[in-house]
């Protein structure tokens, strides 16, 4: 009783614990020697990619640096193990992602320890076939990341700091460094495409060996959804899982996003919307019909988003006078005045965030922010998801720079 009261006061409940008399066993997730100091809170969190998080269970790291989480999961899936972190003793606790964990009720999963942190290192898991399959995926991903880094260093040099969205114009890509940058951006996308194809082939083999495997749809949602070349495969595996587990959330989410992204691929009509602008009036995408439009979605509070402002300013400098209209949409509340001043153009906000119908229509939960959509005068999508130099080159195909 006292222990439960303390947990509730500190915000560490036992919501995920197995109820007394439960018939079906739950999961056990434990780490014998933790990476975290004693009295660190650890949490098991249920969060599909792009969806709000819900805490399932929590525990403290003990004096011997171990912890055990026991409870029940809503369905077989991949859940997030997180840890509490404080910048100072009086600072609030921040949740820090530690590792994804594939879990089903009845599983006992041992969480290993990263003895030496290196680039592309990952937390080892063992105890179930799903954990072994996750480790295989992690090794494939680490190999891909190492290949990308190695090619980056070959083209740009390990000590060279590069801003991928630093301005745009005739003088930019005459310099040798920018020629290398352009080559790198093209090769990077080729490497990512090859990786997605490799992963799709791997998932296809696993699906044949393990027809009821639940990792495939999750990894597809995490890695493959942004690749139009994989849509037929994604539809196939999501429908197969739905036949086996009709209530599986991951298959429903995968199908929902597939429908959204298929409706907004290049060539499709851009979904119209009406959103409040900074003056309290409605900003309608249809009002820009007859002009080229660069629609961009932003998270003004994200420092990485702020690092991309320079590239959009450069594009505005070169293309606004040639007829391109810039429409910037904040995902959530309006950004600060500094944010609006840094991005010339029209500003609007999706006050409901990712739950806005506009986010659903454009499949925003699938893509990282900032996200751009280039729209033609007839309202059709010309390109989406491009940044920096590559985005400038695409715009110049339609609006030449004299």
TrEMBL record:
InterPro entries the UniProt entry points to: AhpC/TSA, Thioredoxin-like_sf, Thioredoxin_domain, Thioredoxin_ResA/DsbE_sf
Pfam family of the protein (one): AhpC-TSA
Endpoints of the signal sequence: none
Location within or outside the cell: Cell envelope
Thioredoxin domain segment(s): 264-402
GO cellular component: cell envelope
Gene3D superfamilies: Glutaredoxin
Protein name per Swiss-Prot or TrEMBL: TlpA family protein disulfide reductase
Entry keyword annotation includes Disulfide bond: yes
SUPFAM superfamilies reported for this sequence: Thioredoxin-like
Organism of derivation: Hymenobacter jeollabukensis
GO process terms (BP): cytochrome complex assembly
Chief place where the protein resides: other
Keyword match Disulfide bond: yes
GO molecular function term, any single one: antioxidant activity
Keywords: Cytochrome c-type biogenesis, Disulfide bond, Redox-active center
